[in-house]
From TrEMBL, chains A, B:
It catalyses: 1-(5-phospho-beta-D-ribosyl)-ATP + H2O = 1-(5-phospho-beta-D-ribosyl)-5'-AMP + diphosphate + H(+); 1-(5-phospho-beta-D-ribosyl)-5'-AMP + H2O = 1-(5-phospho-beta-D-ribosyl)-5-[(5-phospho-beta-D-ribosylamino)methylideneamino]imidazole-4-carboxamide. One of its GO terms (molecular function) is zinc ion binding. The keyword Metal-binding applies. In the N-terminal section; belongs to the PRA-CH family. In the C-terminal section; belongs to the PRA-PH family. Zn(2+) binds at residues 78, 95, 102. Keywords: Amino-acid biosynthesis, Cytoplasm, Histidine biosynthesis, Hydrolase, Magnesium, Metal-binding, Zinc. GO terms for cellular component: cytoplasm. It is an enzyme of class 3 (hydrolase). Residues 31-104 form the Phosphoribosyl-AMP cyclohydrolase domain. GO terms for biological process: L-histidine biosynthetic process. InterPro entries: PRA-CH, PRib_AMP_CycHydrolase_dom, PRib_AMP_CycHydrolase_sf. This is Phosphoribosyl-AMP cyclohydrolase.
Amino acid sequence: MSDWLDAIAWNTDGLAPAVAQDAASGEVLTLAWMNREALERTVETGEATYWSRSRKALWHKGETSGHFQKVVEIRIDCDADAILLRVESVGGIACHTGRRRCFFNKLEGAGGERRWVATEPVLEIPGKTHG
Amino acid sequence: MSDWLDAIAWNTDGLAPAVAQDAASGEVLTLAWMNREALERTVETGEATYWSRSRKALWHKGETSGHFQKVVEIRIDCDADAILLRVESVGGIACHTGRRRCFFNKLEGAGGERRWVATEPVLEIPGKTHG
């Protein structure tokens, strides 16, 4: 039975955006993409697996970096076209740049002076942390 | 100057997913889509404006329901292809179904018994609350 997978409104590429939120702090860590198989594996293994659009392959997050996302809860929205994971972010690093979260660029300034400013420190030297 | 808008990796439709998170509770409320103009208006007005993919029009969230999203902070991720808004959710209702948030469907059960279960009460009768 996979009615729960059929319930999702996958887009024309068979994907849906999946937001991962730190279960403890509430911080939004990452936005990645899942296909049906990625979500199925995520549920079966209890660790987030995404679909890498650049590599066109399933991507078990943490497989090279050790920074797995252990799943606490999975939700979908009213239109069933977006997924929300509450996760434990292993090692406290979710971004391939070695930062705690991918959303480290904050809009600052006003008028013609607006710019994106990196607000999070790099906790681990990148290279080890991709994936 | 709109370098900050050019910095975003809009997809082939000119869109990027935009997650809205309650600034007070940390709850992830909605995932919608923005184009360049939607983000520009959001920044200028301080209230979230999205691109409605179904209506193919700009959508000032709250324009019909009163449930505006007042923007506290705007972030983008490491790939600059996803947007995160921290917002004040006016009236405490972010979903067109009259619920506090759109992510009200939680995956429950195990094995062949998995199913999505609505975990949030309807706080306002829908009809008034679309948009």
